C-alpha cells in the first residue's frame, strides 16, 4: 500500500514538473521594428513625430516590466525578422480580424484613407482619359503604355496586392531597390519621369509635397474608392513561447487604458490624416475607439455612408 502511495506521489510530481515546464515564459523583451519610411517614421531631428513613432513611443512608455528595443531596418529585413519568428512587433500593420502566418493583431490603432494612384499633374489627364475617374486599376495595370513603379518590398491591402499580381502582366514595370526612404525615392522617380504612376496612401503625397511646389497628385481607385484601411500593431505569430499572444494582451491593455483616448496620440494622427477625411474625428471614433471586431475587418467599405465624401 505504501509503495502505491509513493508511485502516485511520483506521478503527481512528474505531472507538476511537466506542466510547469510547458508554461509560457513571461515576455522579457519586445523588439519594435521600423523602417526609414516617412511619414510613418521620421528622423529624430524633426519635431513632429511620425504616424507610427508616436504609437511606438507611447507603448514603450505604457508597458512596464518589459525591455523595449527599437530596430531600424530595411523593409526586406523586417519581413525576414517576422518570418524567422523573432520576438518582434510591427507598430503599423494593416489590421486583420484573425491571425495569419505573419501576425497576431492588436485592436485597431488608426484608420487610413484608401490607397490612391500617385502620378504627376501632367500625366493625370492622360490616365483619366484612358482609364476613367476614379481610375480602373485593373485596366491601368494591364496597360503597357504606362510605366508602373513601386518600392520592391512595398505591400498594400490584400485586395490591392491581388489586383497587382493578377493584372500586371507586362514588363513595363520599374521597381525601386533603395532600402532608405523608399516612398521618397518613388516620388523622385515620378517627378523626373522615370515612372508614370505608383500606388500609396494620399498622405504620403501630402508629406513629400510640403515645403515645395510639388507636381505630384492623387487619383482615386475605382475598386478601392470607399474602403478605409484599419491599422493595428502586429506581433510575430512564429515567435516562440506564445510571445505574440502575451505581447498583444499587454499592447491591448495599454491601448485601451492609456493611448487611444489620449489627446497627444489623437492629435498626432489628426496632423497627418485630417485633410484626407471629411470628418476625421467621426472616423476615428467609429473605427478606432468604438471598433467592433465582430462586424469590421479590413478594408472598411463606406460606400453607403453619406457622411463620407468621395475622397474616403
State the helical fraction.
Answer: 25-40%
Low-confidence stretches: 4-22, 302-312
- Per the CATH scheme, the topology name of the largest domain is D-Maltodextrin-Binding Protein, domain 2
Q: Span from first to last CA?
A: 77 Å
Write the CATH architecture name of the largest domain: 3-Layer(aba) Sandwich
Radius of gyration: 23 Å
- Find the structural class using helix and strand composition: alpha/beta
CATH class of the largest domain: Alpha Beta
CATH superfamily membership of the largest domain: Periplasmic binding protein-like II
Question: Which structural traits does this protein have?
Answer:
single chain, 312 residues, alpha/beta, D-Maltodextrin-Binding Protein, domain 2, six-stranded mixed beta sheet, 20% strand, globular, disordered C terminus
Protein model, in words:
By secondary structure, the chain is of the alpha/beta class. It has two domains: 29-112 and 228-301, D-Maltodextrin-Binding Protein, domain 2; 116-224, Periplasmic binding protein-like II (D-Maltodextrin-Binding Protein, domain 2, 3-Layer(aba) Sandwich), CATH 3.40.190. Helix content is 39%, strand content 20%. Helix 2 (51-62) crosses helix 9 and helix 2 runs antiparallel to helix 10. The protein is globular and about 55 Å long. Residues 4-22 and 302-312 have low confidence and may be disordered.
Quick structural gist:
It contains 11 helices and 11 strands. By secondary structure, the protein is an alpha/beta fold.
